[in-house]
Specification:
The complex is a heterodimer of chains A (409) and B (453). Chain A has helices spanning 23-42, 48-56, 65-78, 89-105, 115-126, 130-136, 155-171, 186-198, 230-241, 280-290, 338-350, 388-403; strands at residues 10-12, 15-17, 80-82, 146-149, 174-182, 202-207, 212-217, 245-254, 259-268, 296-300, 305-307, 311-313, 317-321, 327-334, 356-361, 378-382. By secondary structure, chain A is of the alpha+beta class. In chain A, the strands form four sheets. Chain A has a seven-stranded mixed sheet, with helices on one face. Chain A has a five-stranded mixed sheet with strand order 10-13-14-15-16, with helices on both faces. In chain A, helix 1 (23-42) crosses helix 3 (65-78). The mean pLDDT of chain A is 88. Chain B is built from 16 helices and 19 strands. The model of chain B has no long low-confidence stretch (mean pLDDT 89). The chains are: A alpha+beta (409), B alpha/beta (453). The interface between A and B is large, with 46 and 49 residues.
Chain lengths: 409, 453
């Protein structure tokens, strides 16, 4: 990953601007990437230090220096680097310094240490010439390692990677990210919330006209604007970018003076579109249920149900009762872990804003009784494939409880 | 019932009674539907609940009472005893300021034995972690955990670095009742101070010889650890508890070639400053120079010139020759050679055939070098900055400072490496300065301390 030092940005008021990667800038990036790759190829087999020096020597305008350093960093990260050592260098050092210390102790006043004699004597024991001993002494330092292989990478690909990494580098200094996201499928939302949870980030969700606004930070952010969660926020960026539409605003503490700045970024349709497609079992249920004669109308779900402190439920389908207009959602847990089923039960009793039927495979050995009749939501345990009629019965039961004013909704 | 939980470096309060006023620092967290406070607020919150007789379930505290006391009980020196009493009087929260070499770590050992709680020691470098590890093991006769340098074992007595504490405190911050910040002047600052805030420990001890910081942030130590409860100056104990010492400044001349190159590079650098109106003695001088250098076509050349003229002054041929001579003169002593940068440290190592310790030296090799230095196998060790602080090398009696920053603290700390008291020990610090260069001003700045008067 790049650091903020690899990114050239400018300030406009209290905003941090990352210049757009327009045609001209991209062409310049590709040209510089070509030079970087060329420098890399020329140093194949040389020491790492030589490659670093070659990268530093690439001529460019002052405004392009950070980009060159960033491209160089990305190339170096992909290089195969080895520290081949014919001798045990640590043992060689130990022998040299011990012998030198002994020799020095026995010196007469005014007589300097005979270094060649020390290197010669130790070299003889290691089968090396004195000069080779001197050269090998610190050959295990990273800068002395050999660049064994420089990857074959097109300059365009390296330039594109730089563009993506630059945004992540900025988020390293973020204290909070506000993301307006629009996804076509619940699966994409589910993947996104899974990533947030994995990174131990906290969030607040609000419904917007077309999607959701997610405010992401960490536990300590309540007391101080800390960049401690910057790495997690940077790592979650690809998941946010996978949305069909993303509008992001990151609060930053930028530079040595940790100035409060905002970074804004928008992308539309640049992500991997819908995320995971609707599962086969869900689309089969959707199809079968649509063909039933029933008082429920089924559609792919478009809502996220957030229970602060407990988590998020991303339903797959929404059933609308045609008379009452009430919605009941269905989330298919299928063969997920038993723990997932119990977590959903926690959500249901912890205050889900709308009722959900959680469909769980009988293989998970979970009883429908874990959600009792006081809870608006319900569990549907199925064998093999989900039955639309069985789903309808759960929906009706939930609806009856809702109409009777029971439950925790 | 009200319950307290430790969650990623914060304290979650579930079921706070509506009629009870919120303690300072506690806020409602809509994201998690509970009240939340920094973990460091644990002690005042628990004390307040106890005072108001509010029943609560404490699921936060995961530290324990130590089952083992001191195995080796060493009689404290009077000022160490004074420090412990003062710290105890401040409810086990405070900073103790003692000169380097005066035995700060023994105050910490006494504090752990006094409180009998799981304790975490946070130290600035891996060398110090290793040293604390040895000290705690010997003192308490029990296994000690290490977090950092590739190790991650958390035990009732554990040592870690500031970097690792910042990274991992949110995970293990509830497991210690006492936290000790060694060289605690490192703690204030946006990054490291989170380690103190995310730790639940009710008892806190800070140790330093030099609490003052150039940015004035030492004031926040009060909140992060506690107030300064005891301060002993070097003059109070020099000779009796510290070794007698002298400091010798040696001016060396550049060779004719070095002088010509130095003047040429310096002219390039100063020319750039003048052309761009940068005043290096202003508070933003350095930042402005870096910014201008990045913006202008001739900026890279100016930055290179700046670095080169420093290199020439810092590692002139005459200095390296003089180091060789001093090592021969002190061949019966134990000498530490300090440099400002790694390149010079490695150059000294190659030229004088002495081992070197830099941040690139692996932990095992560092330990071995220090061990061999302590047992007399090696008579000298070169280092850049990693041995500046705390590392205990009791037999070292000669310090040769080839180059350094203008920091008073760094210079005092380097002197401290050779001040550990030994019978009949006379310590000497040599400071090598390239005459007629900007280094003479740097030297004046760093000697602005009582220890050099």
């Amino acid at each position: 990953m790049l650091s903020s030092d690899h990114v050239r940005v400018r300030r406009k008021g209290d905003e941090l601007i990352l210049p757009a990667f327009d045609k001209k800038r991209r062409a310049a990036a590709v040209a510089l990437a070509t030079e970087v790759i060329l420098a890399g190829r020329e140093c194949q087999g040389a020491r790492r230090r030589a490659l670093e020096e070659a990268l530093a020597a690439i001529e460019c305008r002052p405004s392009e220096r950070r980009m060159v350093e960033g491209l160089g960093k990305l190339l170096l990260d992909r290089c195969e680097i080895e520290s081949p050592q014919a001798v045990d260098v640590a043992a060689l050092r130990r022998a040299v310094f011990e012998r030198a210390a002994n020799e020095r102790r026995t010196l007469a006043d005014g007589v300097p240490l005979d270094k060649q004699a020390v290197l010669g004597a130790v070299g003889a024991a290691f089968g090396l010439e004195p000069q080779a001993v001197d050269e090998a002494l610190y050959s295990d330092l990273p800068s002395e390692a050999r660049v064994v292989r420089v990857p074959e990478i097109p300059p365009e690909a390296l330039a594109d990677e730089y563009e993506r990494s630059a945004r992540q580098a900025i988020l390293l200094k973020a204290t909070r990210v506000t993301a307006d996201v629009v996804c076509r499928s619940p699966g994409a939302y589910r993947a996104l919330f899974g990533k947030l949870k994995f990174r131990r980030l906290l969030h607040r969700i609000e419904r917007t006209e077309r999607g959701y606004r997610i405010v992401i930070d960490g536990p300590h952010s309540l007391f101080d604007s800390v960049t401690k969660y910057g790495l997690s926020l940077a790592l979650v960026l690809p998941a946010l970018e996978a949305a069909d539409e993303l509008r992001l605003a990151a609060d930053l503490r930028w530079g040595r003076r940790r100035e409060r700045l905002t970074f804004r970024y928008e992308t539309r349709g640049a992500g991997d579109a819908a995320g995971p497609a609707m599962n086969d079992d869900v689309s089969a249920l959707l199809q079968a249920f649509s063909e039933l004669e029933t008082s429920w109308k089924v559609t792919p779900a478009a809502r996220i149900l957030d229970v602060p402190g407990l988590g998020v439920c991303v339903p797959d389908l929404t059933f609308t009762h045609q008379k009452s207009g009430r919605d009941v959602h269905l989330e298919v847990l299928g063969f997920w872990s038993r723990e997932a089923a119990f977590r959903r039960a926690e959500l249901a009793t912890g205050g889900l804003p709308e009722p959900v039927v959680f469909a769980v495979s009988s293989r998970l050995r979970v009883s429908e009784e874990i959600l009792d009749e006081k809870t608006a939501s319900a569990l549907y345990v199925y064998k093999g494939v989900m039955s639309p009629r069985a789903v309808e019965r759960r929906l009706d039961a939930v609806h009856a409880r809702l109409c009777a004013g029971q439950g925790l909704v | 019932m009200l319950s307290l939980r430790f969650s990623y470096g914060t304290l979650e309060l579930h079921g706070w009674p509506a009629e009870l006023p919120l303690p300072p620092g506690v806020r409602w967290d809509a994201r998690a539907a509970c009240h939340r406070a920094p973990a460091s607020a644990y002690a005042p919150i628990v004390l307040g609940l106890g005072r108001d007789q509010v029943p609560f379930e404490d699921q936060a505290r995961r530290y324990e009472a130590l089952t083992h006391g001191l195995r080796v009980r060493r009689e404290p020196r009077p000022f160490q005893e004074r420090a412990l009493v003062a710290w105890r009087k401040a409810q086990g929260r405070g900073v103790v300021v003692l000169p380097t070499g005066a035995g700060k770590s023994h105050v910490a050992i006494l504090a752990i034995a006094d409180r009998q709680r799981s304790a975490l020691v946070v130290a600035p470098t891996l060398d110090l972690v290793r040293q604390w590890y040895d000290l705690l093991r010997t003192s308490f006769g029990t296994e000690v955990g290490i977090v950092g340098g590739g190790e991650h074992q958390v035990l009732p007595l554990t040592v870690t670095t500031y970097d690792s504490a910042h990274l991992h405190m949110e995970h293990f911050g509830a497991r210690f009742g006492l936290v000790i910040f060694d060289e605690c002047h490192h703690l204030p600052g946006a990054t490291y101070q989170l380690a103190a805030e995310q730790c639940l420990a009710p008892y806190r001890l800070g140790l330093t010889a030099t609490p003052e910081r150039t940015d004035g942030r030492e004031a926040s130590l009060d909140e992060l650890i506690g107030p300064i409860v005891c301060r002993v100056e070097i003059g109070e104990i020099a000779g009796s508890f510290l070794a007698e010492y002298e400091t010798v400044r040696l001016a060396v001349e550049l060779t004719a070639d070095e002088r010509a190159e130095y003047e040429a590079e310096r002219a390039t650098y100063l020319g750039f400053l003048r052309a761009n109106g940068v005043r290096m003695n202003g508070p933003q001088g350095w930042s402005e120079f870096v910014m201008r250098a990045a913006q202008r076509t001739d900026g890279r050349r100016a930055m290179r010139a700046y670095r080169r003229q420093r290199e020439i002054a810092f590692a002139s041929a005459a200095k390296l020759e003089l180091v060789e001579h001093l090592l021969e003169q002190h061949r019966a002593d134990r000498a530490l050679v300090f440099t400002q940068d790694n390149a010079t440290a490695y150059a000294v190592s190659r030229r004088c055939l002495v081992p070197v310790i830099t941040h690139q030296t692996k932990v095992r090799e560092r330990s071995e070098i220090l061990q061999r230095f302590a047992d007399g196998t090696y008579g000298a060790v070169a280092t850049s900055k990693v041995l500046n602080e705390g590392v205990d090398v009791p037999d070292a009696n000669v310090a040769i400072v080839i180059s350094g920053s203008g920091s008073v603290r760094e210079h005092v700390q380097r002197l401290g490496r050779i001040l550990r008291k030994r019978e009949g020990k006379q310590a000497t610090l040599y400071e090598l300065v390239s005459g007629g260069t900007a280094e003479t001003h740097t030297s004046e700045r760093r000697r602005d301390h009582e220890a050099y008067r």
